[in-house]
């Protein structure tokens, strides 16, 4: 693998791979060195992900999102964990090619799959490599929180269990706070909503976080509904492959006089600051914030990663692509800033 020297855009950074860990036969973890001058750019929250720039003979590069399995509170270096998927170009390239000492270009950590309060009781669900962001949350809650943590982790068999030894050690160290339940397909078959609902019934007052294949998460959603867990306390992480190039700096969108004359106005709250902006209807919210030099969170600009999710407090928008959001999310006011266009003349939005 050739060494990457210069970032392809102003937002990305180049990190050196400190070590590569074989977690299972088909899973590798990449541990990164972070120089002091890049520490602020690579600071992350439990459950977030990194977007890696992966070389491609056909397109020059592809972008792939991989969750951080490390905890910002217990691990000295950030670590992403990648499991091979059949026909998955990015995961196979990482597992076959990356070695300690290599350099990889990454975008700053992103994602909203993170608890707002590490002190709350957490009910965590993972299947296969879905354990990666869940592990970050679990370790962070044990280190910095005070609540109980229950993990249900589904795999094909014992050999498929990622972080098996680490989970066992954490359970031994925190017997009063951590409960780990393994679901092995070769013994129990595929999980069913009825079976999971029975298992989670004692924890209906907890906040739930889930990550895994879509059929698994659909099953968990059904189980939580049966157990009476409110929708607002259920959080799911979903990844889709990105087709564009989020590493390239985006050219400003041209605004005609007619577009400017018909623009809406929007108050955007981000990191405690309120920005009042003109919002031409052909532009997205991310477009206008970038044009004003505002450090808006975004990654793919395709509506596939959820990095730019925010809440409409007043007004109305329409979105080009909102498939990553559940209907309940949209009903609650969540939107994707990279896909949103104003419908009403005045809006208030909060990140």
TrEMBL record:
Coiled coil start-end: none
Record-annotated FAD-binding FR-type domain positions: 10-116
Name recorded for this polypeptide: Ferredoxin--NADP reductase
PANTHER family: 1,2-PHENYLACETYL-COA EPOXIDASE, SUBUNIT E, NADH OXIDOREDUCTASE HCR
Source lineage: Bacteria, Bacillati, Actinomycetota, Actinomycetes, Mycobacteriales
Transmembrane portions of the chain: none
Gene3D superfamilies: 3.10.20.30, Nucleotide-binding domain of ferredoxin-NADP reductase (FNR) module, Translation factors
Residues annotated as domain 2Fe-2S ferredoxin-type: 264-351
Keyword terms: 2Fe-2S, FAD, Flavoprotein, Iron, Iron-sulfur, Metal-binding, Oxidoreductase
Highest taxon of the lineage: Bacteria
Source organism per UniProt: Nocardia callitridis
């Amino acid at each position: 693998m050739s060494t990457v020297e210069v970032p392809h855009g102003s937002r990305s950074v180049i990190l050196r791979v400190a070590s590569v860990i074989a977690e299972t036969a088909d899973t590798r973890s990449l541990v990164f060195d972070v120089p002091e001058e890049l520490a602020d750019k690579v600071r992350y929250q439990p459950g977030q992900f990194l977007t890696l720039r992966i070389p491609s003979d056909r397109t020059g590069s592809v972008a792939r999102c991989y969750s951080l399995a490390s905890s910002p509170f217990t691990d000295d270096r950030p670590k992403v964990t990648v499991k091979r998927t059949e026909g998955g170009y990015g995961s196979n390239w990482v597992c076959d090619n990356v070695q300690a000492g290599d350099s990889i270009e990454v975008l700053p950590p992103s994602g909203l799959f993170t608890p707002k309060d590490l002190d709350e009781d957490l009910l965590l669900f993972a299947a296969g490599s879905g354990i990666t962001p869940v592990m970050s949350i679990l370790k962070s809650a044990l280190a910095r929180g005070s609540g109980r943590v229950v993990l249900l982790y589904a795999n094909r068999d014992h050999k498929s269990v990622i972080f098996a030894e680490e989970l066992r050690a954490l359970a031994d160290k925190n017997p009063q706070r951590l409960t780990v339940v393994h679901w092995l397909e070769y013994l129990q078959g595929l999980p069913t909503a009825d079976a999971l609902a029975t298992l989670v019934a004692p924890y209906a007052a907890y906040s739930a976080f889930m990550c895994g294949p879509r059929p698994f998460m659909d099953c968990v959603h059904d189980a939580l509904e049966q157990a009476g867990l409110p929708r607002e306390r259920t959080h799911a992480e979903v990844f889709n492959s990105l087709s564009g190039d989020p590493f390239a700096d985006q050219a400003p969108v041209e605004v005609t006089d007619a577009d400017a004359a018909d623009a809406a106005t929007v108050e955007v709250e981000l990191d405690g600051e309120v920005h009042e902006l003109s919002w031409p209807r052909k532009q997205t919210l991310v477009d206008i914030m970038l044009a004003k030099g505002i450090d808006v969170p975004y990654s793919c600009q395709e509506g596939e990663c959820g990095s730019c999710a925010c809440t409409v407090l007043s007004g109305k928008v329409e979105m080009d692509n909102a498939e990553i959001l559940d209907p309940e999310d949209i009903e609650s006011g969540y939107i994707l800033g990279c896909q949103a266009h104003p419908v009403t003349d005045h809006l208030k939005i909060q990140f």
